[in-house]
Design goal:
With 475 residues, the chain is an alpha/beta fold. It has two domains: 2-60 and 396-471, Urease, subunit C, domain 1 (Roll), CATH 2.30.40; 62-389, Metal-dependent hydrolases (TIM Barrel, Alpha-Beta Barrel). It contains 16 helices and 19 strands. Strands 6, 7, 8, 9, 12, 13, 14, 15 and 16 form a nine-stranded parallel beta sheet that branches. Strands 3-2-1-4 form a four-stranded mixed beta sheet, with helices on one face. Helix 9 (279-286) links the parallel strand 14 and strand 15 (289-293). The two termini are 15 Å apart. Its cofactor is Zn(2+). Keywords: Hydrolase, Metal-binding, Zinc. One of its GO terms (molecular function) is guanine deaminase activity. This is Amidohydrolase-related domain-containing protein.
Length: 475
Amino acid sequence: MLFRGTFVQCPSLGELEIFDDWLIAVDDSGYITHFEPAPSSDLLRRNEPINLPLGTFLLPPFNDLHLHAPQFLYQGNGLDLPLLEWLNQYAFKAEEKLDCDPELARTVYRRLGQRLIKAGTGAVCLFGTLKEETNIILAEEMQSAGIRAFVGKVSMDISSRPSYIEASSSVAIDAAREFGEKLDQTWSIPSSTTSQSRPQLVHPVITPRFVPTCSDELLHGLGALSAEKGWRIQSHMAESSDQVEWVKKERGDDDIHIFEKHNLLTPRTIQAHCTYLSPSSASLASQRTAIAHCPLSNIYFSASRAFCLREALEAQVKVGLGTDIAGGYSLDIMSAMRTAVAVSRVREGERDREGMALQNVDTTSNGKSLAIDWKESLFLATLGGARALGVESGVFKVGAPFDAQQIRLFNSSTRVGAGALDFFEMEIEAGRNQEKYHKQTCITKAMIERWWCIGDERNREAMWVQGIEILGSSP
């Protein structure tokens, strides 16, 4: 495949690159082989490119680092209780329901895959349920959708509903091993045009739910299993005040020390939330693990504290964004980006307020504003999230997989904005000089910022993962 048009990416925190009239070539295995300015490329002499429509650009897809797949069943409901009560009242019941009804599970997970694609999510780290069969269904539906997915069979052997718990730590460890080995032995995607196969998109991830539901024996066994197999790890850490207090009372320690003791803080680990870690603790954890920042669900379950995002970034933490369905009500990473910026601006406002002392703010921000801007959030959603997941996408470069979403800003003929977007000045100028404005119109940072603020699914026209089109005219 050969594409010609405009490409946008965030190669580093706060940096936005716009490549106007560039060419990208993709081989049969879905990897980028050329990325260069179109006018000077020899490829055009031998190949006819797919010309991206004027008014559109390609951007790496979003990465969702933290999503509870079975909780999609009740997305948008049940955010009225503290975390530990909410788990018993809503989350465990929903998960148990899907474990008892494979047909419902397949319906829910198939729709989840469809929704993720429409929202521009190309890679996702998923919490599943206890039952292997239900998690296999989840993996099958993500594979069918064509999304990069890290699927976790939840492990928990204490402090849950009597009907929704594993019999012992050894049973839970064996079940995690069996599920992971099944996924490892299963899928690669055959190319539709050649005999070559593409890399596996669905992988297992070891998933101790969180410290309150996992005995020390279970945590230790899962840490050893991850080291043996090289599998990724996901969990929750220091999410809410009631959870933190429970762990201190029942285990006499903090989440971070318990995870560290059992070798569950590694370069392969993603810990969600971390709102009740002090900035210095967040720095310690981030030397070895990534953090999934879930700002919308933090508003509901960590209302008195906000994640120390700027401090974590300054400490070189690998940070990406998560939706935390259904603790967060929106499946759209664009909502997570906007909320992350808003929460960070509130933190900066509180720090600047005269006489206000915040217990979770210290000097580790190196004097920088605690607020992030839209470009920084876009980095977290794309390359930042990809790095946290350990995948090579998130940026357009030779050797990387071709993962991309096509965004339309305006109609190339009428110059009318797409979806919720309006570009009045451009419409007026097009009316004055049709000949001039039927030529290439450069996409600007101001246009992209407008899309970031008010764009939605209507602006997303296509998406590719590993070179395969999963949204568009020929998925």
